Amino acid sequence: MEVFLYEQATCGGEKLPPAVAVEGLGMFKTLLEGFERMGPVRTFVAPWIPYFQAYPRAEDWKEAFQACLEKAEAAILIAPEAGGALCSLTRELEAAGCGNLGSSSGALEITSDKYETYKRLRDLSPATEVFRGSTALDYPLVAKPRSGVSGEGIYMVENAAELAGVPGGYLLQEYVAGAPCSASLLVGDEVRVLSYNTQELDGFAYKGAKLPLDMECEEVLRAAERVKGLFGYVGVDFVYAEGRARIIEINARPTTPIIALGEVLGCSAAELILRNYRREAMPPLRTRKKVHLRKSNGAGGYASLGGVSIMMEEVHEDIDPRHRRGQYQEARPG
User: Looking at residues 60-74, what average pLDDT do you find?
Assistant: First the structure.
């Protein structure tokens, strides 16, 4: 099966800051290497990406995108949910009749809008409302755009004076003290947990993860089951507090921890995604090692772009989310 692999920062759909683009580059590299071991891969890269010389440079990424959709048997797309970018590309994939290794456009319409997601997960998530000049929630609050990526536009609101500066239509969410975590899921005929991961944040910016966590979170599985059309690799962000998961958002696409899954499980994420699509039996999955995935300034590491690198190091101690600070703790004053 020939697979079309598209990752927006690497393939040229959008030139993002290096601190964000390097995560996409790392995911692209991981999946490209995995799919290449199983068969032909169709893709292209942006002229400013200094890697993957075996693949064409695309001056017009939209034209190259359509050409790949027409010729590949199946495709996996990675792009920001913000502004409906991933949803729009997925509609093009569906219209072309190409097999979709990921979630449907219907699922993406929901997960790309944080409030639409919340409405399906009210009992699993922190209380959330659309800001229309006042709030019934107690301070402190988290203000965030309804559609966003990489922590952009998110900040703490401590009092009524700060509330006055929140844009209309923003979301206000109850602050939950706990450990920021994520789940890497494989969704098909069933929801399968590949790993639970810590989330390392600087304010609201993603800086890395340790995986896997030894935990079970029924709330994560229930959340994934409530959004129809989720398929393939799906990421779920949550706060782990008082023995339960409080769901923050669902990412209906590969997320950065996928870079480390091959090292953790001893089986490439690309193979798992293809087996899931074909409804084939999965290989036995067990933890082979623990990994710390982190972003740092400088060159080298697993992936590097514009002076920012993704580093991947084996971890030998236990990974316990209870020892970490709250999801938004670092952003709070004092």
Answer: 97
φ, ψ of residue 210 to 5 degrees: the values are: -115, 140
Residue 268 parent element (H or E): none
What integer pLDDT is reported at residue 13 of this predicted model? 73
The mean pLDDT value for 259-282 works out to 97
Which 3-state string (H, E, C) describes 273-293? HHHHHHCCCCCCCCCCCEEEE
Q: What's the pLDDT tens digit per position in 79-125?
A: 998 888 999 999 999 999 999 999 999 999 999 999 999 999 999 99
Q: How far is CA 122 from CA 63, 125, 145, 179, in A?
A: 41, 5, 18, 20
Minimal CA–CA distance to 248: which of 283, 188, 214, 199?
199
3-state secondary structure of 37: coil
Amino acid identity for residue 87 in this structure: C
**What is the full DSSP assignment across 149-210?**
STTTT-EEE-SHHHHTTSPTT-EEEE---SEEEEEEEEESSSEEEEEEEE-EEETTEEEEEE
In this prediction, residue 150 has a pLDDT band, given cuts at 50, 70 and 90, of: low
Task: Note the Cα 135 to chain centre separation in Å.
Answer: 29
- pLDDT tens digits, residue range 15-33? 888 999 999 999 999 999 9
SS3 231: coil
Per the listing, tokens 């074909």 go with 278
Largest CA distance in the chain: 58
